[in-house]
Every structure is written in C-alpha cells, then in structure tokens.
Amino acid sequence: MDLQVAIDRVTLDRAVALARQLDEQVDIIELGTSLIKDYGLEQIHAQLPKLRHAKLLLDLKTIDEGEYEFDKGFAVGDILTVMGAASPDTLTSVYELTQARSKQMFIDMMEITDAKTAQIVDHPDAIYGIHHAKDSRAGFDAAATVADFHAKYPAVKHISVAGGIDLAMAQKLATQGITESVIVGSAIVKTADPVAAAQKFMEVMH
Amino acid sequence: MDLQVAIDRVTLDRAVALARQLDEQVDIIELGTSLIKDYGLEQIHAQLPKLRHAKLLLDLKTIDEGEYEFDKGFAVGDILTVMGAASPDTLTSVYELTQARSKQMFIDMMEITDAKTAQIVDHPDAIYGIHHAKDSRAGFDAAATVADFHAKYPAVKHISVAGGIDLAMAQKLATQGITESVIVGSAIVKTADPVAAAQKFMEVMH
Predict the structure, then answer these.
(1) What whole-number distance in Å separates Cα of residue B204 and Cα of residue B128?
(2) Residue B133 has pLDDT above 90, yes or no
(3) How far, in Å, CA of B37 to CA of B61, rounded?
(4) Is A102 left (phi over 0), alpha (psi -120 to 50) or beta?
(5) In this complex, which of A37, A133, A136 lies closest to B36 when CB atoms are compared?
(6) Distance, first Cα to last Cα, chain B
(7) What is the DSSP string of B18-40?
(8) Which residues contact B143 (CB under 8 A, 6 or more apart)?
(9) Average pLDDT rounded to a whole number, residues B30-45
(10) Distance from C-alpha of A123 to C-alpha of A137, rounded to nearest angstrom
(11) Smallest Cα distance from B172 to chain A, Å
(12) Which neighbouring-strand residues pair with A81?
C-alpha cells in the first residue's frame, strides 16, 4: 500500500520545503487545490524541483474543460484529479488524454450518488479516491467505507482513501488489503517532525 | 438583464487587457477557472486593476474547503462560484460567509440531479447558474432550459445562464424575462473587436 502525503493550505515556499523533505520518504506527494488556486500551476512548476523518488499528484479537482486542465497539469505532475461529479464526457476525455500520455488519473468520488458511481467505474487504469468532503460534519470510517465500495464495485482495481487517517487506521487498511494508496495530511505535515511522522506511517503500513 | 462576459484560456496579460477594455461596457466580468488554476489568485490580485464599473466574478468552482476558498476569493472578487455538486454543508458554509461579507455567491448547477437541485435551492440571495459542461457533446437550448428550471423551482429569484449564447438567444432571453444574467464568452472575447461585440449584446438585451 502506498503512502500519499497531502500538502495544502500553506505558503508555496512551505509546500516546496515539505516536498523536498518528504520526497524520499513517501510514495506520492500531493499538492492540494488551495496551492493551485492561490499560486497557479505556472508558479508551482517554476518553484518546485523535480522529485527524485515520489510521484507528484496535483489535486486539480477538474470538473469541466478536462482536456485543457489535464494538458496544463501534466506539464507539472504525474497524477491529476478529476471530480466524479464531472460529466461522463469530461471523464472520458481526460481518461483518453491520460492514457495517451502514460500518466495517471485520480477520480475524486466525493458527493456522488450510487447511480453516478455505477456510470463511471469503467476506467480500469484510473484510481478511485474515496473520502468525505472536508466541510462535511459527519463521521467517516475509512476501512468500512473501502470494504463497502469494494463489495459494490469489485471490478475497480485502484482504490485510494482519505479522511482523518491515523496510524491505527493506516495499519488496519494495510491488513485489509483492498486499498492501493492511503492519503494522510495533517497527521504528517502539521507535526513538529514531518519526516519522522511519515516514517512511522510507512512502518505500520509495510 | 445583466451581461456577464467570460474571459478564459488566455494569458493573464490578455485577460487584464480585456477586463480593462470591457469594464465600462458590461455588468459583470468573469475570470475563468483556467486563469485561476494557471496563474493563481495572488497573481491575479496583483495584476488586475480595480474595476470601475463592472463587478468581478471569479469562477473558482469551489467543491470543498469552501470557507478557505471563499475567504481567499473575496479578497479579489465580488462574486464567487461554488459547485452545486458540492456537499450541502459546503454550500451552507459559503452562503453564510458570503452573506456576512455582503458579497454574492453563484451556484454552478452543472451535472446535478433533480434530487440534489431540490436540496440546494434554499439560498435566496444566491445566483443559480445553469449550463451544460463545456465538454458535453449534447446540444443546449438556453431559453427552454431556463423556462423549465423556473417552472420547477419558482422560488429561485436569481438565474444565470451560459452556453453558446448568441445575439438572437440573448434577445430571446431578455424578452422571456426570467433570466437575471446571461454569460457570453467567445462571441465577445474571441472577436476582432470585443468592445463592439459587447455593445451589440447590450443593445439587443435592453
């Protein structure tokens, strides 16, 4: 199981410093939507050094104009996110573009109905990302949600999960064996020693 | 009926030049999602002069982390967009923030079900924006769609519509009298003389 660390709501300088520190420690470094909307892809591209070990995921949250956004995004990152709430035409066009570039696409499954989910689980190489809205006031059990999703959509090969994942939940998900990547934000980046925190997650997950 | 001109998929310099030219001609100037994701709010804020006449709408397409994005966005613009596909909690929190700041919120109704629509038409001061995905391969009749929406949700006071609006459709929408603002993109900004094109739209609409 891969560890994805989410960097968000910090200055670009801080994000670059965290990405450098964590590059050798984790599998995927995510730059959050706030960094893209606050600073823009051009500045991120100019200031972020090429990662040596981790893949770079940009949380674009594309919901329309898929080809334009993915074309710009793949000049910077390896994995881009698109909303499952986008139109099926948007999802199809970004999937085709992603396959043509040999890159990866991450579908954010937040706030979509079962009917819509059933319509869009037909992209075999896409990563399906399960989480609640950060704004949601409801609770979230990552392992139970992943198990439920897997039972309903057994054809989906690549599942990612996020949402208040702590060491105990990361270990539980690793043991469960369904999830391909787990996303951890503040439990790593908001600690006094993000490298040590990331190493602890890697230990319990492997 | 107000004219909103959408500026998108151009360089920031070009966007700033267009905004200056069109400020006195139109009611609302929209800076599209591509400008925000390519250049970031900080650069837009630094380079765009304060508009003298038109309101500035930023097409943030917020779908999560509503308070963070709206707080940042209102430092730059007068009207911000949020996706109807966001969680009801996100919509409620950005509505509250918008009301507290005496600003405006635009809910992008793209790709949501009737059931979800019924859940979120309870924000009386919000603008409800109707359009198809730009990536959609289906046709779109703006006047018929607006009439249908108004019949289903008569309590909604502020309706905006976009999608291939030409002069004839703008005139039809003005006569129909339901729509509060109409969004025009390439039919103004991709012409040789955007000011003259905007003036023609204003003439047929008033």
Answers:
(1) 23
(2) no
(3) 11
(4) left
(5) A37
(6) 7
(7) HHHHHTTT-SEEEEPHHHHHHHH
(8) B169, B172, B173, B176
(9) 98
(10) 31
(11) 27
(12) A106
> What pLDDT sits at residue A11?
98
Query: In angstroms, rounded to a whole number, what is the distance separating the alpha carbons of residues B17 and B3?
Result: 18
Task: List residues in chain A touching B: CB distance below 8 A.
Answer: 9, 33-34, 36-43, 60-61, 63-69, 72, 83, 85-87, 89-90, 93, 110-113, 132-137
For residue A205, give both structure tokens.
């997950």
Number of residues written out for chain B: 206
Looking at the structure, give the CATH architecture of the domain made up of residues B2-205: Alpha-Beta Barrel (3.20)
The position carrying tokens 């050094």 is: A49
Residue A13 backbone phi and psi in degrees, to 5: -60, -45
Alpha helices in chain B (DSSP H): 12-22, 33-47, 66-73, 88-100, 114-120, 142-152, 167-176, 186-189, 194-205
How far apart CA B130 and CA B184 sit, in angstroms, is 13
Sorted by sequence, the CB contacts under 8 Å of residue B147 that are 6+ apart come out as B176, B178
What is the pLDDT averaged over residues A72-94?
Answer: 97
Q: What is the domain partition of chain B in residue ranges? A: 2-205
Mean pLDDT for B124-144 is 88
Q: Where are the beta strands (DSSP E) in A24-126?
A: 28-31, 55-62, 79-83, 104-108
Can you read off the two tokens belonging to residue B100?
């507290």
Return contacts of B109-116, CB within 8 angstroms, 24+ apart.
Answer: B109/B84, B109/B149, B110/A63, B110/A64, B110/A87, B110/B83, B110/B84, B110/B85, B111/A63, B111/A85, B111/A86, B111/A87, B111/B85, B112/A85, B112/B84, B112/B85, B113/A113, B114/B152, B116/B84, B116/B85
pLDDT digit string, tens, across residues A32-61: 999 999 999 999 999 999 999 999 999 999
What integer pLDDT is reported at residue A136 of this predicted model? 77
**Distance of alpha carbon B104 from alpha carbon B115, whole angstroms:** 24
3-state secondary structure of A130: strand
Total CB pairs under 8 A between chain A and B? 124
Could you report the predicted ipTM of this complex, rounded to two decimals?
Answer: 0.96
Contacts of residues A145-150 at CB distance under 8 Å and 24 or more positions apart, as own/partner, are A146/A173, A146/A176, A146/A178, A146/A179, A147/A176, A147/A178, A150/A178
- Is the dihedral angle over the CA atoms B100, B157, B77, B68 positive or is it negative? positive
The token duo for A194 is 């993000």
User: CB neighbours (10 Å) of residue B175?
Assistant: 11
| Length of chain A, in residues | 206
Q: Which amino acid is at A137?
A: R
Nearest to A41 among B38, B41, B87 (CB): B38
Q: Looking at residue A86, what is its pLDDT?
A: 97
